[in-house]
Amino acid sequence: MTRIVIVLISSLLVAVAPAAWAFNCPVVIKQAEDLIKKAESGKVTTDTKPLIEEAKKQVAEAKAHHDNAKVKRDHGDAIRKAKIAAAFAEEAIVLQNQ
User: What pTM, to 2 d.p., does this model score?
Assistant: First the structure.
């Protein structure tokens, strides 16, 4: 009986997990956009402006990868670009607070 339950739970996880992965791109892109907005609302200096611009460029590329995704790798590229954008925005925020 427990073996059947374990098999059913395992098959359910395998069936549901890909659906959860598919929705990860928009979440990471939104997080990056929120960080960019936070960076823009702070004191933009000559040091932080290029970082914010690069973050915007990376988010645009992430959206393009997500919108044109045909395989899992495209979604992976979108997430990578969004995380890079978030890193640039976070760096700008840190520099603003120094």
Answer: 0.75
